[in-house]
Amino acid sequence: MPMSHDQNFKNLILDYPLQALAFSAPEEAKALPPDVVIRSVREELPKDRLGDRFFELDVPLLAEWPDGRREALLFVVEEQTDPARFSIRKLASYCLAIGEFYDTDRVVPVVIFLRSGASIARQLRMGSDQQCYLDFHYIACVLPEIPVEDHLNSQNIVARLNLVNMRLGKGQRIHAYGHAVRGLMTLESSWERQRKYIDFVEAYGALDEDERRRYRELYVTEDAQMMQWSERLLDQGEQRGVQKGLQQGLQQGLQKGLRQGQLGLLADLLAERFGALDEAVQARLEQADEETLKRWGRNLLSARSMDEVFRTQ
Q1: What is the DSSP string of 250-277?
Q2: Pseudo-torsion of CA 110, 115, 116, 122, nearest 10°?
Q3: Which site in 100, 223, 237, 305 is 20 to 30 Å from 146, CA atoms measured?
Q4: Are strands 132-137 and 123-127 parallel, antiparallel or unpaired?
Q5: What is the pLDDT of residue 209?
Q6: Given this model, what pLDDT does residue 291 score?
């Protein structure tokens, strides 16, 4: 199954919006006061704006100040093999639409590129030879152009998890991977998020066998933690399997018990009404399902013979 860059980065931005902004747009993050609230607003946007593939790759957020001011933060993840296929016109159009929808001119567009390219459009200028009437640009976070050594010990978890996506020199992949795992260990205490983002590091780190062997030699503590995470995940899987089995067994047991109770009651009523039951009748009762037993029970209320009990209509 192909990797879903879209969902991987959406999760990361939604789980850590401030850290994502601080990593990709530090100047904008510095301007935000501590009491600003950032929330996802994807579900609020008109559905007809989300059908295009371009818009499926966005993470729209809204920053709200206590005094009522609003600022839209738009993250777009660009996963094209050829970054030149990125459409700055669509991005500009979307920013205008979001600004109109939320009645604000404060919109910060951030595009995260997983691949670099000299032909990436960074600015859009529209007008005539005499005058520019529209000048649009955005914040480009081109991961493969960011030097990994600048963030190896960052306290920003979004930066640490993306070490494996940054510009790597010869032999640096192992250290990027190790520091990403170490960052996850030290900066995130939630087991659920640790579990989610170790998969992120694994997917983008993609160590080969030799690199993994070297990683285990150099990052003993981190490797041991990964083993603990794996064991815990396996334990949880086993527990869920047991619980599911118990639930299914209990449900099946209850259903079987209810059926046996219905069968026994109907047999007693038939015997009381029409005398001892022969083997053919007993076999017929045993083979009947729950709904059939219910129907026969209703028939018994007005039946004058055994045949009328077993009538189909």
Answers
A1: HHHHHHHHHHHHHHHHHHHHHHHHH-S-
A2: -30
A3: 223
A4: antiparallel
A5: 87
A6: 81
pLDDT at 248: 59
**Token duo for residue 205:** 């780190």
Under 8 Å between Cβ of 229 and 198: yes
β-strand pairing of 58-64 with 139-142: unpaired
pLDDT at 150 over 90: yes
Residue 192: C-alpha distances to residues 15, 16, 184, 196, 228 (Å): 11, 14, 12, 6, 14
Give the residue extent of every domain in the chain: 1-145, 237-310
Q: What is the mean pLDDT of residues 13-34?
A: 91
User: Residue 102: what residue type?
Assistant: Y
Q: Which residue, chain included where needed, has tokens 């795992």?
A: 181
pLDDT score recorded for residue 50: 45
Counting every residue, how long is the chain? Answer: 313
Whether 17 and 38 have beta carbons less than 8 Å apart is answered as yes
Q: If we measure between CA atoms, which residue out of 96, 92, 101, 111 comes closest to residue 41?
A: 101
Give the burial class of 45: count Cβ atoms within 10 A of its Cβ; 0-12 exposed, 13-18 middle, 19 or more buried.
Answer: middle
How high is the mean pLDDT of the chain? 81
Tokens representing 264 are 């026994």
pLDDT at position 2 over 50:
no
- Which stretches of 130-255 are assigned E, i.e. beta strand? 132-137, 139-142
> What pLDDT, on the 0 to 100 scale, is given for residue 48?
59
- Which pLDDT belongs to residue 298? 76
Closest Cα partner for 310 from 262, 251, 268, 270? 270
The fraction of the chain above a pLDDT of 70, given in percent, is 78
As a whole number of angstroms, the distance between CA 205 and CA 188 comes to 19
Minimum mean pLDDT among 4-13, 19-28, 44-53, 119-128: which range?
44-53
Tokens at 70, concatenated:
């609003």
